[in-house]
Amino acid sequence: MTNKRIASVFALCLTLWIVVSSYSQPTTVELILEEKLQGYTGTRDTTIYQESLNTNGGGQYLFVGNNADGSSRRALITFDLSAIPKGAKVVFVSLQLTVSKTTGDKTKQTLHRLTKDWGEGTTQATSGREGGGTAPARGDATWQSNFHEVSTWTKPGAEGDFASAPSAVAEVGGSGSTSVWTSEQMIADVQQWVDGATQNFGWILIGDETSIRTTKRYTSADNASAKEGERPRLIVRYFP
């Protein structure tokens, strides 16, 4: 084999090695729910309250679990996935939420894929540290409605409008701790959304609703005083 041919073969092998190497490590993207600070569009989070029509789309906090009276709170959350290119293969997904306050012990909370759209709104509770929410405006999500004064859930609390099997389960601890949901099913959820196989309505987070005082309060996307890393974030790794 001539030197010229050897050089050509070597160049080809080097090119192939570079191409293969570029696909051997997944790309990581952190989608942080910081609408006002980072400019992500289509990102939403809110709380719905069982005992009332209240909501808290523009609030500083999200609430999940039962209060002292046994009334439930559930959080709705979705992320804009447009930063992930079409055709990408998702290999890892992790949702992280920071507990800002709780009086209860460690408890498990389940994440379910929503199958119906909902409204976040900008209404914000101003009393009771937002624990009871506030009256909704037209289009806000509530316990009864996915869009207040427009349309309702199939059943109150979004029952019938989320996958019955949880996408992930996490044990949630005390104030200041970060809870992490990650699973193969969450990878499948995000993959479906990226592929356009199903519409991205995000997840609903449900706590222990069999006991009282199980509520966990999380820092929300709209919390302007939150420290770095405390707002809800979704970490996705994918091959382009």
What's the structural blueprint in terms of helices and strands?
Elements: H1 3-22, E1 27-32, H2 35-38, E2 44-49, E3 61-66, E4 72-78, E5 89-102, E6 107-113, E7 145-147, E8 151-152, E9 168-172, E10 178-181, H3 184-195, E11 203-206, E12 216-219, E13 233-239
Antiparallel strand pairs: 1-13, 2-4, 3-4, 3-12, 4-11, 5-10, 5-12, 5-13, 6-9, 6-11, 7-8
What this model shows, in words?
The protein contains three helices and 13 strands. The protein is of the alpha+beta class. The strands form two sheets. Strands 1, 2, 3, 4, 5, 6, 9, 10, 11, 12 and 13 form an eleven-stranded antiparallel sheet that branches. Strands 7-8 form a two-stranded antiparallel sheet. It is globular and about 50 Å long. The chain starts with a helix and ends with a strand. The model is unreliable at 9-23 and 33-42 (pLDDT under 50).
